[in-house]
Amino acid sequence: MTKHKTLAFFIPHRGCPHQCSFCDQRTISGTVQAPTPEEVTQTCQAMLERSGPLESAEIAFFGGSFTAVEPAYQIALLEAAQPFLGEDMFSGIRISTRPDAVDSAVLERLERYHVTAVELGAQSMCDRVLYQNERGHDAQAVRKASAMLRERGFSLGLQQMVGLYGSTLQDEYDTLEQLLACQPETLRIYPTAVLEGTKLAAYYFRGGYPQLSQEEVLDYCADALCRCHHAGVRVIRLGLHDTPSLREHLLAGYFHPAYGELAESRLYLRQLKAAAADCGKPELFVETAPRTMSKVLGQHGCNRKVLAEQGVSLHVRENAAVAAGTILAEQQVYEIFSERNQR
Hints:
GMP Synthetase, Chain A, domain 3
């Protein structure tokens, strides 16, 4: 999973004409008030003073469907960011918005203010799931907006929510393939969280949600990482950011503060099982790249426990000669992003 550096400003639910089943932007972002232009200026200036010259960092306006916000407010925020763009400063501006809030006039405005990347909250590419979760748009809106953005030279990012109300496991795999067909440069994957006060919470209390198990969602996310790797699409986030507000209002769902690491650890487990089967011995000696030990062993040693239940004792050590994303066992290299590692 790719690290992506942004200075993010959250605009909680401002401009969005819908209240989706899962949505509580204030809780997700930990933000109650939308930023003012003055706050954008002060925060950007403070980061430059603190960090010095920057490389490949972006100013980002997330949440609230940025292009659906009243144009005067959009322009005020974008103007506040302009002095901080350029060499040794921020490389561009990234925004997130709804697929049905993109048109020619919107794109002209974004170009004028040096927006370089646009992320669309697709969430699902199944029209039934979109309708059940009251998204207010269909899958074709995602395809249309994606094509418009790519034609105008914007870096396209897409977002998927896994485990939405009414979504089956096959819907998730189908959504991933349709999102990749839109040719994004980046993807964010958010396993769904049930928050107090949302429509999804009502479904949860009535016993109608969740419908996918924790294991199904984790295995899907591991597969998605592998599939995106081979498609050349960078996964820049897997799982919601951990905030005190999120913890306070979380009821259920598929949240973990390090979900991306859980998914990568699952990929390592699959290769550990393959190595154990190939070796056919009661002890498995594995070498891994520096700073990957925790992923190989799994959270609280869960991967080691799985192998122990199969009668295999796992021994791991780090070796700088081993490439990231691989393990070495009995002189054989096992790649976690191997296409054979997808279920």
